[in-house]
Structure to design on (1009 residues):
């Protein structure tokens, strides 16, 4: 600890921190423009100067560390004069076009100029007159307003790991630009917009939409991924106009990715449902709530009477709140009397959960977003966490910057591989082989505590099962050289502490339960705790949906899971789908469509007319995330409130309310009047799962390839997420669609040549299950023999090709491609 | 009681006197009040703060850029401004509306505007039977300029009654920036 005096206040702070930080921690404000706590000190603006006793020169407080006994003054006439001059110099070039600058009202430059500036400038003004760069889809650059603080450049390269912006040129003509003045092509996280102290970087969708002082700001939780970032939504007269992150706000501490920042406008998509629809003679007819609910309850009663309760099933949703999912469960259990419930988690979080239960005896698995920090080695297994969980990914990058060793095994180049210390280029879907191979090496070299670990249940079988995973064989399976395998295994085994992370979800087909089991084995083998394994739940409320009991194992044993409900015709007669679009997002959709069409009653409750809703008998309009109160549980298992910020369109209602009304029209009173009632009921019924357990079990897993490519279908199709999208919901966002609006097929240059495919041409892709047409993108970021695509876009119909892998194995698909002429 | 007083009393002289005065003023003196709206007083004080108008520049285009300062300053919060991005990426004022019944005619909006775009005309007679017509839209307000500030009047308005702020600006066209502001007591 260091003792010093700032403005007459005696403070004692940690050694090594800067004067600015020490002052801020003690509530003393020092003006600054180029400092951000996420970034290294830079010292560009000189506004943060302070006086120190017995020091002839002024100190830049943002980059001067504290020393014992310092006597600091932060606001003296001399300092004011210096700051005034600094501002005078800054404003030589500044256009001061505040009236048409969207930053006005929350502009740091305006604020300091107001506080310290003087009305008159002594210099002849030389204003930059660059026209704003409006070419990019989401971020607009107006170099004239830039004060060259370099914050954007630094947040983009240091923090965001992208490095899309640079300070180009020298002296007066310096500007912030992408390299070579190209169009800005980047992650579109918009972090630079938030951090820019001036209006040089602005959000395009928000451009000229409203002045800062006309906006009403309210915090809520992001509806996309499992990070659960806090969005500050700016609304004006009942319309959400923008979303931003506020420093130190929420789990994300103000960081956001592009989806949270720009994607909120999906609630304004054109095909939002406004009234209930009933299918009559094959076409939808608008109906009143009473008609629709009567129709559903009559049909349900008839179906229950004729085929029994078990012929009714329900699918819940990670897009809906805990309250909604809880009501769905309550409706199914106490009104229908059936336990056939499942959600998209079946393809992701449920698998993880099952595996971890087998290995560690835990019914819940929450991650800690901060866990990468301070780890010796971070091992990422065939996952692009920077895309699926961007803010968690930021922490991984930060850990790497702070000295952790980042090892990434992946089948394609990603942001994480670019930042990795070691990049193991592997064949897609071979994670299990890789893990087994590494464990074999660890076992053979004795890099673990045999005495303790060998007592673990299942160890002998586990050890023998690994016999065949010799480095040579594994190297052939995975495509990683033997030396690399050995050295990686050694690094991971010898590390002081480690974090192993991967993601499992419906949108990725290279990992399954086996992968998680193998990773658990590795963790147990190394004597680590489950915390070493960080597998985040996919979406905003996947964790909560699972917790609320929308899962097949939550009730009795002989219940139907998603595979029975959607892939077996005749297993159900009625299906109630809340906020999910299986036809677009679940694999093998031709089969799903066949099942759905065979149902006697399909009720879809959603915010828009989805592909699934188009098959329904009754469609009910639900309110979206910004139009209702409730709670989400993020991947960390933390419950956070979402708020009703705008009014729901038309007659749409919150999901829980629809279900309550439906219960009433089924003749069953559910004694719940309002959202508080639901929360109370949840508190009473849902028990917190235990978070620790001593159970450790080795589960032997053997590597099995998905569909192996062969002569007829020579390529492997891998599905991955796109950074700008999350599920199919975000594809309704006009802003995000400006970046990527259709699925494309990424293909290696060599393969492209082989199959006669050129960039941007159309290709026909056929698997054993179906055919689709996509645009090709020839790239060197994917390896030969594999093609990549994403399944966000309903019109891409990628799920016509895929299949669900029910056993724990990964499910890569074998496909053939042909170029389409014309 | 004197005789004189007695006679005055029985003949109601005092009352007749009073009635004569009443008759005289009622029938032969013109009323002090005016029969508005049949008779309109032609009287206007230059600089009177009446109905709003949106100023036009020499080319006849609206001066307002939609900066929203008037709306921020307005103590009764009755100015609504909606802008969007125009085709050539400039700022377009889609709607500029003033809910005049709420306006207190303080003139703050005029003072706040960096472009001299909002004005208060000398026109005050705009009472009507429908509340809607008191809600001024951009089109109404621009028309008001033509109606009440035509010609020389519009040109002089700011010079005469408000500090001509636009003269403090330099820079490109349509760009507001302070060049020199005189500070009191410091010349
Ligand atoms: S950056 Fe700030 S000071 Fe500069 S024009 Fe915009 S609002 Fe005004
Ligand atoms: S949006 Fe994000 S990735 Fe793009 S330039 Fe800004 S900080 Fe960099
Ligand atoms: S664009 Fe903004 S953040 Fe970037 S250097 Fe200029 S003023 Fe700083
Ligand atoms: S998508 Fe995930 S990382 Fe991005 S803002 Fe939302 S919660 Fe945060
Ligand atoms: S202050 Fe002037 S320029 Fe700004 S919105 Fe009001 S009238 Fe228009
Ligand atoms: S904040 Fe210290 S120099 Fe900019």
């Amino acid at each position: 600890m260091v003792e010093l005096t700032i403005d007459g206040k005696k403070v004692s702070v940690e050694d090594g921190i800067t004067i600015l930080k020490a002052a801020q921690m003690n509530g003393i404000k020092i003006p600054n423009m180029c400092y951000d706590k996420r970034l290294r000190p830079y010292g560009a603006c000189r506004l943060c100067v302070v006086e120190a006793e017995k020091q002839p020169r002024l100190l830049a407080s943002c980059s001067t560390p504290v020393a014992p006994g310092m006597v600091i003054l932060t606001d003296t006439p001399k300092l004011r004069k210096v700051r005034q001059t600094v501002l005078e110099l800054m404003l030589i070039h500044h256009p001061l076009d505040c009236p048409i600058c969207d930053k006005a009202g929350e502009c740091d430059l305006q604020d300091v100029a107001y506080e310290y500036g003087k009305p008159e400038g002594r210099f002849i003004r030389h204003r930059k007159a660059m026209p704003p760069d409006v070419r990019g889809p989401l971020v607009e650059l107006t170099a004239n307003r830039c004060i060259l603080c370099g914050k954007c450049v630094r947040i983009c390269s240091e923090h965001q790991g992208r490095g899309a912006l640079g300070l180009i040129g020298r002296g007066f003509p310096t500007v912030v630009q992408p390299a070579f003045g190209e169009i800005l092509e980047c992650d579109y996280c918009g972090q630079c917009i938030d951090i820019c102290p001036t209006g040089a970087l602005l959000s395009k969708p928000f451009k000229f939409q409203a002045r800062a002082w006309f906006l009403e700001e309210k915090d809520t939780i992001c509806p996309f991924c499992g990070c659960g970032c806090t969005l500050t939504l700016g609304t004006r007269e009942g319309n959400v106009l923008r979303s931003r992150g506020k420093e130190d706000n929420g789990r994300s501490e103000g960081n956001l990715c592009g989806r949270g920042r720009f994607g909120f406008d999906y609630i304004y998509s054109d095909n939002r449902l406004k009234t209930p629809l009933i299918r009559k003679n094959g076409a939808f007819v608008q109906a009143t709530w009473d008609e629709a609910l009567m129709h559903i309850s009559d049909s349900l009663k008839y179906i229950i009477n004729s085929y029994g309760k078990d012929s009714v099933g329900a699918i819940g949703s990670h897009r809906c709140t805990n309250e909604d999912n809880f009501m769905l469960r309550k409706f199914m259990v106490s009104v229908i009397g059936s336990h056939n419930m499942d959600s998209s988690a079946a393809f992701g979080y449920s698998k993880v959960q099952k595996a971890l239960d087998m290995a560690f005896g835990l019914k819940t698995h929450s991650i800690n977003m901060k866990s990468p920090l301070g780890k010796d080695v971070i091992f990422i297994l065939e996952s692009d966490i920077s895309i699926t969980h961007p803010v968690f990914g930021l922490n991984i990058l930060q850990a790497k910057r702070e000295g952790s060793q980042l090892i990434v095994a992946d089948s394609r180049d990603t942001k994480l591989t670019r930042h990795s210390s070691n990049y193991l280029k592997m064949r897609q879907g071979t994670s299990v082989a890789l893990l087994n191979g590494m464990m074999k090496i660890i076992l053979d070299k004795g890099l673990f505590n045999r005495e303790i670990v060998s007592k673990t249940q299942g160890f002998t079988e586990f050890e023998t099962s690994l016999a065949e995973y010799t480095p040579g064989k594994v190297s052939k399976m995975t495509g990683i050289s033997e030396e690399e395998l050995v050295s990686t295994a050694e690094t991971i085994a010898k590390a002081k502490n480690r974090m192993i992370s991967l993601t499992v979800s419906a949108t990725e087909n290279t990992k399954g339960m086996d992968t998680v089991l193998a990773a658990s084995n590795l963790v147990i083998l190394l004597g680590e705790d489950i915390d070493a394994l960080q597998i985040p739940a996919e979406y905003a409320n996947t964790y909560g949906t699972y917790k609320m009991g929308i899962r097949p194992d939550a009730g009795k044993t002989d219940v139907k899971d998603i595979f029975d409900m959607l892939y077996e015709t005749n297993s159900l007669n009625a299906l109630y789908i809340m906020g999910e679009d299986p036809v677009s997002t679940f694999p093998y959709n031709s089969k799903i469509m066949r099942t759905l069409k065979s149902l006697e009653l399909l009720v879809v409750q959603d915010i828009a007319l989805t592909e699934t809703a188009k098959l329904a008998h009754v469609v009910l309009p639900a309110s979206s995330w910004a139009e209702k109160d409730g709670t989400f549980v993020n991947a960390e298992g933390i419950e956070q409130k979402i708020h009703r910020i705008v009014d729901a369109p038309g007659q749409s209602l919150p999901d829980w309310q629809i279900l309550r009304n439906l219960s009433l029209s089924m003749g069953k009173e559910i004694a719940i009047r309002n959202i508080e009632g639901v929360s109370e009921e949840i508190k009473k019924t849902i028990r917190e799962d235990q978070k620790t357990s001593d159970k450790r079990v080795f589960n032997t897993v053997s590597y099995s390839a998905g569909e192996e490519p062969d002569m007829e279908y020579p390529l492997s199709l891998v599905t991955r997420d796109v950074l700008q999208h999350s599920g199919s919901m975000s594809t309704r966002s006009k802003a995000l669609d400006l970046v990527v609006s259709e699925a494309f097929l990424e293909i290696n240059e060599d393969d492209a040549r082989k199959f006669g495919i050129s960039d941007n041409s159309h290709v026909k892709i056929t698997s054993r299950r179906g055919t689709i047409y996509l645009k090709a993108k020839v790239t060197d970021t994917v390896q030969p023999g594999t093609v990549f695509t994403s399944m966000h876009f309903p019109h891409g119909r990628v799920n016509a090709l895929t299949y669900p892998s029910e056993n724990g194995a990964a499910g890569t698909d074998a496909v053939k491609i042909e170029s389409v002429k014309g | 009681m004197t005789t004189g007083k007695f006679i005055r009393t029985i003949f109601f002289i005092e009352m007749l006197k009073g009635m004569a005065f009443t008759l005289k003023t009622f029938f032969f003196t013109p009323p002090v009040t005016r029969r508005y709206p049949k008779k309109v007083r032609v009287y206007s004080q230059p600089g009177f703060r009446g109905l709003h108008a949106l100023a036009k520049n020499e080319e006849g285009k609206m001066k307002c850029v939609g900066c929203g300062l008037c709306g921020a300053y307005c103590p009764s919060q009755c100015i609504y401004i909606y802008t969007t991005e125009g085709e050539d990426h400039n700022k377009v004022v889609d709607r500029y509306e003033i809910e005049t019944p709420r306006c207190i005619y303080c003139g703050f909006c005029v003072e706040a505007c960096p472009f001299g775009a909002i004005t208060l005309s000398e026109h005050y007679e705009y009472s009507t039977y429908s509340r809607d017509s008191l809600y001024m839209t951009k089109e109404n307000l621009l028309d008001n300029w033509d109606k009440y500030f035509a010609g020389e009047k519009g040109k002089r308005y700011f010079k005469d009654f408000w500090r001509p702020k636009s003269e403090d600006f330099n820079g490109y066209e349509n760009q507001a920036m302070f060049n020199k502001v005189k500070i009191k007591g410091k010349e």
